[in-house]
Amino acid sequence: MTDKNEMHQKRQQRLKEAVDERISKANEQRGILIVNTGNGKGKTTAAFGTLTRALGHNKKGGVVQFIKGLWENGEKNLLEPLGVEFHVMATGFTWETQDKASDTLACQEVWRKAKQMLANSQLDLVILDEITYMITYGYLDLEELLIALKNRPNHQTVIITGRACHRDIIELADTVTEMRPIKHAFDAGIKAQKGIDW
Ligand code: ATP
Ligand code: MG
């Protein structure tokens, strides 16, 4: 065997031992709280990617979206007919609204659905898409969200998405990823696209 080959083999063996040790230590099994935050693209799509995985293993999932998109929602079109419970904030908040009272009402209405999901032991995965803004704008009480998250069924995983996630949510979370923009097509004047951006 060449020296290079032997060195490579040794390195891989050490890596394998380190990984095996970490795997043998990770033996707790429970649902986790995942936060996808930051300014880069991919927070919502990563959440739906995880839901696709869960559904592929016959698990049950639910989605609550706290910002009404301006366009038809591709994920909802696909997933609702497959039996995924899906709620989108009915009226009020988009990036453009300015009426705090009606936005708060719309938020509270959809939050009721979210709370039911967080208490439903039939659900393995719950996505709370763009919920971070509800805390930032004061439409939803932080304590109430934290309590619902802490009291959820033990096996249930929750994914929270949105920019500028409150530190108390990050502290409670098990897995937190910050999407960092390196480039975004929009900045080069390319329009948001159906099937790619919504
Ligand atoms: P996606 O839904 O594509 O995963 P996201 O959830 O990370 O994006 P949001 O802030 O929720 O990001 O994005 C809302 C919309 O803005 C989406 O259509 C998304 O593609 C687009 N977008 C995301 N990041 C950026 C960015 N850095 N600049 C411009 N537009 C963005
Ligand atoms: Mg998003």
Automatic annotation (TrEMBL):
Pathway(s): Cofactor biosynthesis; adenosylcobalamin biosynthesis; adenosylcobalamin from cob(II)yrinate a,c-diamide: step 2/7
Pfam families, A to Z: Co_AT_N (PF12557), CobA_CobO_BtuR (PF02572)
Superkingdom field: Bacteria
Protein name: Corrinoid adenosyltransferase
This protein's record includes keyword Transit peptide: no
SUPFAM superfamilies in the record: P-loop containing nucleoside triphosphate hydrolases
Family from the record: Belongs to the Cob(I)alamin adenosyltransferase family.
Domain Cob(I)alamin adenosyltransferase N-terminal: 2-23
Keyword ATP-binding annotated: yes
EC number: 2.5.1.17
Protein keywords: ATP-binding, Cobalamin biosynthesis, Cytoplasm, Nucleotide-binding, Porphyrin biosynthesis, Transferase
GO MF terms, alphabetically ordered: corrinoid adenosyltransferase activity
Compartments where found: Cytoplasm
The protein's role, per its UniProt record: Required for both de novo synthesis of the corrin ring for the assimilation of exogenous corrinoids. Participates in the adenosylation of a variety of incomplete and complete corrinoids.
Source organism phylogeny: Bacteria, Pseudomonadati, Pseudomonadota, Gammaproteobacteria, Enterobacterales
InterPro entries cross-referenced by the UniProt entry: CblAdoTrfase_CobA, Co_AT_N_dom, P-loop_NTPase
Annotated catalysed reactions: 2 cob(II)yrinate a,c diamide + reduced [electron-transfer flavoprotein] + 2 ATP = 2 adenosylcob(III)yrinate a,c-diamide + 2 triphosphate + oxidized [electron-transfer flavoprotein] + 3 H(+); 2 cob(II)alamin + reduced [electron-transfer flavoprotein] + 2 ATP = 2 adenosylcob(III)alamin + 2 triphosphate + oxidized [electron-transfer flavoprotein] + 3 H(+)
Gene3D superfamilies noted in UniProt: P-loop containing nucleotide triphosphate hydrolases
PANTHER family from the UniProt entry: CORRINOID ADENOSYLTRANSFERASE
